TrEMBL record:
Molecular-function annotations in GO: ATP binding; phosphofructokinase activity
Organism field: Pseudomonas avellanae
Name of the protein in its database record: 1-phosphofructokinase
InterPro entries hit by this protein: Carboh/pur_kinase_PfkB_CS, PfkB_dom, Ribokinase-like, Tagatose/fructose_Pkinase
Source species taxonomy: Bacteria, Pseudomonadati, Pseudomonadota, Gammaproteobacteria, Pseudomonadales
UniProt family annotation: Belongs to the carbohydrate kinase PfkB family.
SUPFAM superfamilies: Ribokinase-like (SSF53613)
NCBIfam families in the cross-refs: 1-PFK
Segments forming domain Carbohydrate kinase PfkB: 10-246
Length: 248
């Protein structure tokens, strides 16, 4: 069993609505509604907990609607190291139609002050040496720059920690420059970060070799229903998920 710290800078309350067909500009009625505390890092934490690992979770959390997250932490026995910030954690709305089409509306997240950023940085620097792996996942909230994320990753790397990064856009670009132990972009995110098309498996392998040269040991590239390619310096693996029927 490993001790793992996950960092979710921009968690979300996910509201999922199930309906027959979305009619734009009309009053729509849902068949079911589900609300749950989420965010990439928290989703990763739940899977790792199911696999038997010991989890501590951290990031920024709005104080006005923190109850759903605190209930999750208590239910899953997560150690809570989140820094509270004024306002609400963002809400993301998913509208799932019977056809399988899903429409996402993602909120922007709270404004995070420099004081809160300094508090989280100091807290992570203090507790991180006790962990086997640190996972940094998801987007950045307002006020948090890619440069701040890069500084955090470099600090963790300087402590000798294995750091796994799953982000996109400017945050991914900044993260790559820090040379984390593992990254997990999808093909579009990686192509954007490297300013190069990544269409074929050969192109993925070439991109992975380029990243290995930068000190990134593991490059995991997700492709939706086409599975995942995992490139390490010594081996390349392809995992293909089985076809499934969506139940709800």
């Amino acid at each position: 069993m490993a001790k793992i710290l996950t960092l979710t800078m921009n968690p979300a309350l996910d509201l999922t609505l199930q309906l027959g067909q979305l009619e734009l500009g009309q009053v729509n009625r849902s068949n079911a509604m589900l609300t749950h505390a989420a965010g990439k890092g928290l989703n990763v934490a739940q899977v790792l907990a199911d696999l038997g690992h010991e989890l501590t979770v951290a990031g920024f959390l709005g104080i006005d609607n923190q109850q759903a997250f605190e209930a999750l932490f208590e239910r899953r026995h997560f150690v809570d190291e989140f820094v509270r910030v004024p306002g609400e954690t963002r809400s993301n709305i998913k509208m799932a139609e019977s056809s399988g089409r899903i429409t996402d509306l993602n909120g922007p997240g709270p404004q995070v002050s420099e004081e809160a950023q300094q508090a989280l940085f100091a807290r992570v620097e203090q507790i991180a040496p006790g962990f086997d792996v640190v996972v940094v996942a998801g987007s950045l909230p307002r006020g948090v720059t890619p440069e701040w994320l890069q500084k955090l990753l470099l600090m963790l790397k300087g402590l000798g920690l294995k750091v796994a990064l799953d982000s996109s856009g400017l945050a991914l670009r900044a993260g790559l420059a820090a040379g984390p132990w593992l990254i997990k972009p999808n093909t579009e995110e990686l192509a954007d970060a490297l300013d190069a098309p990544i269409i074929s498996i050969a192109a993925q392998a070439e991109a992975a070799a380029r990243l290995h040269a930068q000190g990134i040991e593991h490059v995991v590239i997700s492709q939706g229903s086409e599975g995942v390619h995992w490139f390490s310096p010594s081996v390349a693996l392809h995992s293909l998920p089985p076809k499934v029927t969506v139940a709800s």
